[in-house]
Amino acid sequence: MRILFVIGNLGDYHVPRYEALTELAADRGHQVSLVEGFSRSPLYDFPQARRAAFFNSSPSNAVTLLEGACEADGHWCRIGAGVFAALRRFNPDVVVTHGYNSNYSFFLLLAKLLRRRFALIYMSDSKADDGKRYLIKEGLKRIVVSRYDGALVAGEKHRAYAKSLGIPMARSRIGFDVIDVDYFSKKARAALASASTIRERFGLPERYVLCVSRFVKRKNVDLVIEAFFRSGLHAAGLSLVLVGQGPCEGQIRDEIDRRGMKNHIVVLNSVVNSDMPGLYSLAEFVVLGSAFDQWGLCINEAFAAGRPAIVTRTCGVANELVLEGLNGFIVEPGDVSAMADRMVQLATVPGMQERLSDNAAWSIRRWTPKFFATNVIELAESLAGAETAAYMPA
């Protein structure tokens, strides 16, 4: 079976997933090829070290369509020409693409509808409660998504949403949002041995709560600040460390000043992925207060570093990876009082943080690139068989 993996930008999170996919595919006698639309990420300004290392190794059957560009730049005509050329070159039995609303996914679906003989799988972490949904828009989305053959999504609530868009449960799998757990865990453990150096380099307090989030409105970083203020933990010697960047940074800094918390809250911008294990490993626990979040990979990272988490119910990880009272806590979005109470519990109840930390490290063991690769391959094998049967001559 020939599998074509199509993505806008093969960033650092995607590299270990793709590498696991190629390794498992080879073990099963399949071939995987890669089409990357753009060499730059629209989300991250800092260097993507794992992507650079991957392409510096001159991987076979891998092509980038547009060097020096990112998905936000558009380039519909050039992407369309590149996608059709790649389909002719690699002649796939199955195509796996990132999302269903990108320009490259549009051309892949168009090619399929023009009777190209391949099964088409999309990868996504969208779910029903990602903000307000509009009936007409959802109806149009269903028309598009139902033309896909299958979906690799984040978790069970994401499978339910895919089903509402026309993908039967039998043709979806979970495991899209995974990280390289072994890599992250090893780096986190190593960081503990050089804690003083890391603290000095980043100006980290001795004890702190960590929030890793883009500085955009729906992430509710201002509410995390308010909850931390209400918790009173700063009076007990704990600080809050915010890692992120985005258009709301000015408002966030204003909120810190308004609360008189400048000496208790540290803001870090553009920390590269390779440095993040150290920041997680030295934290007490992690907080994600989003109004909604499709998943929340920072929680995967926290768990890989053995740190529990407080998340809102509308984060994708809630009740999928984060389990109430087992490895963290789940609060309603916008409930600052509940968030503050949970912060106090985690910071002060004897033995709780240690117990939840151990459970967090155990819980993440399943959510690995191998889990991603296994579910992609199994779904592809089932769909490739169905697609072949559909085109068998009578």
From TrEMBL:
The regions listed as transmembrane in this protein's record are none
Q: Name one Pfam family in it.
A: Glycos_transf_1
Alphabetized UniProt keyword annotations = Transferase
Could you give a GO molecular-function term held by this entry?
glycosyltransferase activity
Per UniProt, residues of the Glycosyl transferase family domain are 205-360
Q: Which PANTHER family match?
A: GLYCOSYLTRANSFERASE
List the protein's name.
Glycosyl transferase family 1
Organism from which the protein derives:
Trinickia symbiotica
